Predict the structure.
Amino acid sequence: MSSDDGLRFEDLPLRERKRARTRLALLDALLSRIGPRSIEQIPVKELCAEVEISEVTFFKHFPAKSDLLTWFIQLWTIEMAWHADQAVRAQGSGLEAVGEIFARTARDATQNIDIMLEIIAHQARMPKDLALPGVSTAERLLRFPGLAGVECLPAEGLDSILPRFLHSAIEQGELPPSSDIASLTLALSSVFFGVPLCVGRHDPAAIAPLYRQQLALVWAGARNAQGGA
């Protein structure tokens, strides 16, 4: 597995590769069980049995079971940032980059809304000063084979990714120069988390069109604010 012609997973030290494989196997074991059960109902012992490690080893990797979700969120943001960067390069549009993040999130949520709802609940409980575990080069290359340069991306949160592409949209003339980045980031975050919460398990397929509708309203509001200034 490699990041195109760049760094290869197989070239990394064995210890790093084994660690990445164990952590990702634990994550996949957890994600495959969310739906019928919540994270609180999934015992660490069960995850360890599937991955064939001891509970002591589990807690060396993740001090708490919920840390698996925190780490998953970091992996998710790296992947979304990569695809959004590609959208900017291909289309020269900061707004298209934001739209790409929402579109991919909608696709994932449609496939398993329970994971999205667990993440939202987990995000709500996370303290602001939480020290994030980080994502190693080995973990990135193993999780995202073929995404060139993924090992170089910062493990940012949504509140850091969105402003970057909003600034790009302003530079490209897609949004007014006086656009309030902080307010737009808050509005987009509200849409990002609020739509899946409102839709819930009843109609996950509605998330994508609702995201598109709400994004159009946010962009229109930003432009109208400039016009009324």
Summary: The first helix runs from residue 14 to 31. The chain has a mean pLDDT of 91.
